[in-house]
Amino acid sequence: MSPTRTDLKGMTLPELEAYFSRWGKERYRARQISRWIYQRFAEDFTAMTDLSKRFREDLAQNCRISAPPAEGREVSSDGTEKFLFRLEDGEPVESVLIPEEDRRTLCISSQVGCALRCVFCATGAMGFRRNMTSSEIVHQVVFAAKRLKERGLRLTNVVFMGMGEPLENMTEVARSIEILLSPFGFGLSGKRVTVSTAGVVPVMRELAKKYPVSFAISLNAPRDDLRSRLMPINRKYPLKELVGAMKRIPLQSGRKVTAEYVLLSGVNDAAQDARDLARLLSGLRVKVNLIPCNPHDLCPFASPPTETVDRFRDILLSAGVQTITRERRGADIRAACGQLRGASG
Ligand code: SAH
User: Fold this and answer.
1) What is the pTM of this model?
2) 304 within ligand 1 shell (Cβ under 6 A)
3) How far, in Å, is the centroid of ligand 1 from the Cα of 216?
4) Three-state secondary structure string covering the chain
5) Does 289 sit in the ligand 1 pocket, CB within 6 Å?
């Protein structure tokens, strides 16, 4: 397949409309093609039987629908699946499909590696390699949704919590979000699409204004000194600015911002840390997700004992902060939070 052909995967509906209007095509053709790619998971044009044979031939000659292979696939004992994609330039990225009782959540990557170097995260340890394109980002969703469909299931939620910092790749992440939310794309509601960020404050505002997606903020420490040691980005956007930005995220009724807090034994898990966190978050419509640290080779920290995790949670709860401990999923296949680094086996 010639790489000079235009890749239609990753194009938003307005982009497809603009592209095909240059071909002199009717506007609704873009909608048809959008549905074929994002709802019926087509990878070639011959299947598109509601288009004329001539149009399909033109498409095949000038366009393509990229589909990087999942060269690795691992299934955890808890049903969580991890896919390793080899992108066209050979770079590896991972996504994780997490089945729950009433939902199927896909955790997707937005960058190959990450530049933020949070000290507890495996992706940070591999450094930054490059941004992913919307085509590569959305392909992870197509791939998982197609597999689920074969089993008679639907993908219900997408979280940008895989490799990379989504808000450092805003252009391509915004195009992907548009496709996820479009009724001619995946048709997901903003409630079911969560963008997780280490706290790139100005981009948070921009994104919140543009799309009604859900936000998760990786807080991980209640004070600037500690947070700056764990997450260097805190030196640029300290807690006051970050919490201010969390306050300004427009929320539909009943919705809350998520604050993620990785618990590192002896580092940020003291009773005082929990009290400081409760104070920091007071007045916010927030729910806290506690994530006991998942171990990996490059992580110098350990998970606290269960009693410490429970004490931390109870202090938050008694201060009136909604808190849950995130169930560890897929740790046996290195698919849990903070364990993705694009290496199979
Ligand atoms: N860069 C974005 C998206 C990645 S989300 C962000 O930081 O939010 C990945 C989540 O896993 C983050 O909440 C991060 O704090 C958490 N995480 C990273 N390393 C971890 C580890 N070793 N154990 C548990 N959670 C970890």
Assistant:
1) 0.96
2) no
3) 10
4) CCCCCEECCCCCHHHHHHHHHCCCCCCHHHHHHHHHHHCCCCCCCCCCCCCCHHHHHHHHHHEECCCCCEEEEEECCCCCEEEEEECCCCCEEEEEEEECCCCEEEECCCEEECCCCCCCCHHHHCCEEEECCHHHHHHHHHHHHHHHHHCCCCCCEEEECCCCCHHHCHHHHHHHHHHHHCCCCCCCCHHHEEEEECCCHHHHHHHHHHCCCEEEEECCCCCHHHHHHHCHHHHCCCHHHHHHHHHCCCCCCCCCEEEEEEECCCCCCCHHHHHHHHHHCCCCCEEEEEEECCCCCCCCCCCCCHHHHHHHHHHHHHCCCEEEECCCCCHHHCCCCCCCCCCCC
5) no
